[in-house]
Specification:
Elements: H1 2-12, E1 15-16, E2 19-20, H2 25-29, H3 42-47, H4 63-72, H5 84-95, H6 100-109, H7 111-114, H8 120-124, H9 136-149, H10 165-183, H11 189-204, H12 210-227, H13 241-262, H14 280-284, H15 299-316, H16 322-347, H17 359-376, H18 383-407, H19 435-452, H20 458-474, H21 479-490, H22 494-500
Antiparallel strand pairs: 1-2
Length: about 500
């Protein structure tokens, strides 16, 4: 009986035609039948993952010798402690309890409404049947969708601690896996889209400087699709060349929006794509309208246009050289005079109760806050400067009136015009675009500066209190709001805090 047991063991780990028949590490981990094809088994080929075998090629005559040599000589195969598939396996373990359809469906009912980087019809008709059949780019996309739709725990903590334990590990796994895939030379449009969604997550959950750094990586990643075109594979959820090209353009638009928004983090450095010259087709191509009950079909087009205005305004701001100051004051006066009519054109079709859920309204207001604040502080040395200051002051007052008119129904304050028995309107946090947080922060910064200069008028104190209250509410969904509150508190004196209480 002993020889038979030995023979069986040899059969399991035997050699045929000089190639080991032992399963690859991925198939063995998932307890799947492996055809042991070298260098890549058919299953790993289908899933587009690295196929790794624990043993090297051996022959029957040299099996014992090779085992002796391997104990003394390092393997020529790269030694990686956490191979690529390990990250994927760990991510899948965290996602496997939720059906793929639920993860994707929630994303398209929420995040996709204000940041439609993915083509919903193309993606949905190519969903894998289960997590086990999910290829790399789909797995990362689904994981980051889960991150974006995760709701922070209820807390008034503004200490600046990043993320909560429940999702921190998944976030770090995604970041690590991107690095591994990058080292392996993998880069597809689907992976670029996943990168951009991860930047979105970092930006609006206040993961800095990661978001500020990651946006540059996303720009280079999409550039690499053209620079190293020979190593890229077509986007899996694009059925035709036309669909792929539109996916590519839409991804670029989303990158530009995020890049211009993240430039607000610095008062010195421009956006990464500031001086880029894009093909006319990229910027003029009209995104496909999406059917959204609460928003205009052109809401994303409006957001992209608003981001272009934001980029222009930031180039007008923070000027130091006297030789350029007069020119820019004249330009600013002209731009300021035109802003009122442009604003009406961009948002006149947005009902008052839906402005809060419209990203273009928030981005446009950020641009106006920057522009008017700069105009008010322009030195009064020329007629144009005085005209610019007066116009800016009037437009800023009108802007604040519009902002407070929109957010008052959602906040409850003893000094509001609401009756005591009337409760504030509940926010739909699932549809709330996070661009709003930066708009509220910019507005609150203006009021905070006024109070620091001694303005404790009732309108100023009530205005700042309302803006901070709204940021607290948004902090229930997006952690960047809590970060902005912390930054505001750093500029708030004890006297100011007492007035706000």
């Amino acid at each position: 009986m002993e020889p038979k047991r030995t023979s069986s063991r040899v059969r399991d780990k035997g050699v045929v035609n000089g190639i080991s028949k032992k399963s690859c590490t991925r198939c063995r981990y998932h307890k799947r039948k492996c055809d042991s094809t070298h260098p890549t088994c058919s299953r790993c080929t289908r899933l587009q993952t690295n196929c790794i075998y624990d043993n090297n090629l051996v022959t029957p005559s040299s099996s014992s010798a090779s085992s002796t040599i391997s104990a003394e000589t390092p393997s020529v195969r790269p030694s990686i402690k956490f191979p690529e598939f390990d990250f994927k396996t760990l991510i899948l373990e965290k996602l496997s309890s939720t059906p793929i359809e639920d993860v994707v469906g929630l994303h398209f009912r929420t995040i996709h409404l204000w940041f439609p980087i993915l083509a919903d019809a193309n993606l949905c008709r190519r969903l894998p049947r289960n997590w086990e059949n999910s290829v790399d780019e789909f797995t990362l996309l689904f994981a980051i969708m889960s991150l974006l739709n995760a709701t922070p725990p209820n807390s008034n903590d503004t200490s600046g601690d990043i993320l909560w334990e429940e999702i921190r590990e998944l976030y770090l796994l995604c970041k690590s896996w991107f690095s591994i895939l990058e080292a392996y030379g993998k880069n597809t449009l689907g992976l670029v889209q996943a990168r951009v969604l991860l930047v979105l997550f970092e930006t609006f959950h206040g993961v800095f400087p990661a978001a500020y750094i990651s946006i540059a990586g996303a720009v280079r990643a999409i550039d690499a699709l053209c620079v190293y075109a020979e190593i890229n594979t077509p986007l899996l959820h694009s059925a035709t060349v036309e669909e792929y090209e539109e996916d590519y353009r839409q991804t670029w638009r989303c990158i530009l929006i995020l890049d211009r928004f993240l430039a607000l983090e610095s008062h010195t450095y421009p956006s990464v794509t500031k001086n880029r010259v894009f093909h006319e087709k990229l910027l003029l191509g009209t995104p496909q309208p999406i059917s959204i009950p609460l928003l205009s079909p052109n809401s994303f087009s409006d957001l992209f246009e608003a981001s272009k205005l934001l980029d222009k305004v930031q180039s007008t701001d923070f000027l130091e050289q006297d030789i350029n100051l007069l020119f820019n004051e004249k330009e600013l006066a002209i731009v300021t005079q035109n802003r009122g009519s442009e604003q009406d054109i961009m948002v006149n079709d947005i009902p008052k109760d839906l402005k809060l859920y419209n990203s273009s309204w928030a981005i446009n207001n950020i641009s106006r806050l920057i522009l008017y604040s700069f105009g008010i502080n322009a030195p009064i040395t020329q007629t144009e400067s005085f005209s610019c200051m007066v116009l800016s002051q009037n437009y800023l007052s009108s802007l604040f009136a519009d902002i407070f008119d929109v957010i008052h129904p959602y906040t409850f304050s003893p000094t509001s015009d609401l009756h005591e028995t009337q409760l504030p309107i509940e926010l739909n946090f699932q549809l709330l675009p996070p661009f709003l947080t930066q708009m509220l922060f910019k507005a609150a910064s203006v009021f905070t500066e006024r109070m620091r200069k001694g303005d404790f008028e009732r309108n100023t104190v009530d205005g700042l209190r309302t803006l901070r209250k709204m940021l607290e509410l948004l902090g229930c969904r997006w952690l960047c709001a809590r970060r902005y509150l912390k930054l505001l508190s750093e500029d708030t004196t004890l006297r100011m805090m007492r007035a706000l209480e």
